[in-house]
Amino acid sequence: MASPGLRPFLPSDAPTLAALFRASVEELTAEDYSDDQREAWASVADDEEAFARKLAGELTIVAIIGVEIAGFASLKDNTLFDMLYVRPDLAGRGVGSALADAIEKLAGGRGTKKLTVEASDAAREFFAARFYVAQSRNTVTVGGEWLGNTTMIKDLAAPPASGPH
């Protein structure tokens, strides 16, 4: 499969990204979270306006394959890798890696030395394979349900110094 194209989030993407978020949570985290936990987590996208504001308030990029949205990722305050979600039928096919590469490059280009992620149990191995190091185990309450995640940090390479002109 060819690498996905990447572009900035557009407000018109919000309904599609909300549906993708919900499908991703419901289908790709079943081994790590109960039905009630997944439903509470997925319900974050039920308020589409609030979800759109969150996406617009962060640096959000969208992955495109052909003409269809394949996934999205967001960077908050240039230091937090806040969201990474891939359409379930495209999981494991490079979409998440392309989005993660882009978020890491964007953060590094903005001078970020360490990038933090609150990795879900379903995503922990993905981030560990990208050299994120576990720092602490956490529980967060979402929709009245407790969900576990892991704070992980990656040291980003310093951008290359400019040579003589």
TrEMBL record:
Start and end residues of each N-acetyltransferase domain: 4-157
Cross-referenced Gene3D superfamilies: 3.40.630.30
Annotated CDD domains: NAT_SF
Record keywords: Transferase
Recorded superkingdom: Bacteria
GO MF annotation: an example: acyltransferase activity, transferring groups other than amino-acyl groups
Pfam families: Acetyltransf_10
Name used for this protein in its record: GNAT family N-acetyltransferase
Annotated organism of origin: Methylocystis parvus
Organism ancestry: Bacteria, Pseudomonadati, Pseudomonadota, Alphaproteobacteria, Hyphomicrobiales
